[in-house]
YfhL family 4Fe-4S dicluster ferredoxin
Amino acid sequence: MALMITDECINCDVCEPECPNQAISMGEEYYQIDPGKCTECVGHFDEPQCVMLCPVACIPTNPSHVESRETLMQKYLRLTQATA
């Protein structure tokens, strides 16, 4: 599954620079995650970096974007090939 940031976000700026896929950006009121770029850090790290660093625990999985680990790995490979 891709991750999402809830309205509990305090805009602390910790997550955005840590995202290896540059999937996190500032939305109208708080940060948001682009599900097309989010791999939950599959291919980069063992755990999602944004979740590990978030001081208010406002980054759950996005139920609208259910993906298996295999699908996330395929997305990672597609994204990394596009930047190569």
In short: The chain has one domain: 16-83. The first strand starts at residue 24 and ends at 26. The two ends are 25 Å apart (CA to CA).
